[in-house]
């Protein structure tokens, strides 16, 4: 029984394993409607306070045909700021009885305009064939790109201190402890 037959008839019986996972001849995938891109964050870390400053943020994305550039750029900016907030600030805290301590915006840290740099953005759109307009999704691209780029920049900046991993949120206190461990 070949793979196409197995896919039509259901899962393999125990002990029956397909000889290949290559099912390209069974399913012909349509050109992707998913966006792609590259985000790069440059950070500076004050070793005395552990404060992370995002010095520069560059992104290039492929959203296919962009119908309204202002909306797309606004979604990107908002998503990047959301990702920066998750990477650096946002954390829920509870007391020993389970009471939420960060239940209001007075207690729950969010990024402000002063916490983020101006963004450099380029669009290299390659229209998709999955819809008549050629547009691809863009709604989550800012957040999806900012989380790894910011966190990887922090790990890279802390690598001289032997740091190989940083959990989110990378608060100033957590960063200071990593820099001054053992001192």
The secondary-structure element order is HEEHEHH
Strands, count: 3
The level of helicity is 25-40%
Structural class, from helix and strand content?
Answer: alpha+beta
Supply Rg.
Answer: 22 Å
* Tally of DSSP helical segments: 4
Q: Strands of the biggest beta sheet: in what spatial order?
A: 1-2-3
**Count of individual domains:** 2
The coarse overall form would be globular
Largest sheet: 3 strands, mixed
The span between the termini is 65 Å
Strand content: 5-15%
Overview of the molecule:
β1 and β2 (52-62) form a beta hairpin. Helix content is 29%, strand content 14%. It has a 3-stranded mixed beta sheet. The protein has 183 residues and is α+β, with helices and mostly antiparallel strands. The chain has 2 domains: 1-30, no CATH class; 34-179, Aldehyde oxidase/xanthine dehydrogenase, molybdopterin binding domain (Aldehyde Oxidoreductase, domain 4). The chain has 4 helices and 3 strands. Residues 22-26 have low confidence and may be disordered.
């Amino acid at each position: 029984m070949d793979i196409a037959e197995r896919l039509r008839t259901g899962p393999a019986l125990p002990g029956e394993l397909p000889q290949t996972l290559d099912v390209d001849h069974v399913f012909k995938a349509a050109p992707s409607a998913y966006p792609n891109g590259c985000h790069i964050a440059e950070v500076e870390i004050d070793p005395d306070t552990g404060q992370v400053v995002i010095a520069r943020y560059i992104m290039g994305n492929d959203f296919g045909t962009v119908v309204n550039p202002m909306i797309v750029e606004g979604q990107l900016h908002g998503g990047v700021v959301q990702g920066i907030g998750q990477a650096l600030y946002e954390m829920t805290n509870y007391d020993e009885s389970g009471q939420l301590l960060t239940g209001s915006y007075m207690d729950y840290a969010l990024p402000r305009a002063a916490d983020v740099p101006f963004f450099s953005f380029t669009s290299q759109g390659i229209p998709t064939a999955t819809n008549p307009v050629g547009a691809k999704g863009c709604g989550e691209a800012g957040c999806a790109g900012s989380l790894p780029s910011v966190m990887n920049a922090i790990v890279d900046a802390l690598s001289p201190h032997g740091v190989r991993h940083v959990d989110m949120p990378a608060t100033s206190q957590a960063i200071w402890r990593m820099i001054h461990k053992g001192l």
